[in-house]
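subagent[fold] <- orchestrator: predict structure for attached chain, return tokens only, no commentary.
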Amino acid sequence: MAARAIVLLSGGLDSILATRLIKDQGIEIEAVNFLTVFCKCTSRGKTCLASTSAAASLGIALKVFEVSKEYINIVKAPRHGYGRNLNPCLDCRIFIFRKAGEYMRRSGASFIVTGEVLGERPMSQRMEAMHLIEKESGLSGFIVRPLCAKLMEPTMPEKQGLVDREKLLKIQGRSRKPQIQIAQELGIDDYPCPSGGCLLTDKGFAERMRDLMRHNPDFTVQDIKLLKLGRHFRLGPNSKLIIGRDEEENAKLLALTEEDDLHLSPVNIPGPIGIGRGSFRDDYIDLAARILARYSDIASDQYLEVEYRKTTEENGSRIMANPLKDKDLIALRI
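subagent[fold] -> orchestrator:
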């Protein structure tokens, strides 16, 4: 009976190559992908198209796990700290490997496969960090990294003869030239360009996330989804405004509104909508209307009629607002 392995398949070139190197040894492979609200792919849908496409091209099954609710607690207080922005890379890897290990044991597989390359990522793919991740995830000796395996101690699957170590590689560092060359040799030409897949590594998103954590420590997945849309403004400690950039974003914002949210929209002219979340007294409503006017199609010396109402209200009220000056806008923008 052939050995079985679980591969962490992001859909990027590294994970595709790692899968091929193990699959070509006659080992049965099942792919898993762990999605969170912070994955860039979830901005476009409910699944990762890259991993879905990669699994199909590799001819392997893919199981997707949505783990946002659990992962939020890690983002709030990572034991091993953050990276350059708000990315808890070490705690993230430990969490993902724990989840993969649980599924490995349930499914009867023997080990985990990843596309990690020693030295490719400064925080989570150093030798010391890899050992820490293995230990804290409870998978020491059971994570096979085909792309850099020969730079590391043999794993249990290699010692047991389940994996032929001689067919594994010793790639190191951040250059992708070795991977691209191997892909050409294996006839792999359909893979995405390299780019960070985690919004928490993005400086702009991280600032929005910090603002949310500071003013609303009990935030939810829905609150995070809002961070991925529109322009954000902090009007007060408990008051925030989001302005849609286009018709598509307007629709997405409306779909994420909650009962107590404030809706603002221009009257008689097309334009963006605004969603106010939190406590909105009269001066904040006026300020929100002026921000909405700034992004509507009117001149700076004109006034815009703005309708505002709570989500649960059928009829709204109206206010006349002139566009907020850019210097005042900048001070409020997150």
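orchestrator: received. Logging for downstream: The radius of gyration is 24 Å. The domain at 4-186 is CATH 3.40.50.620 (Rossmann fold).
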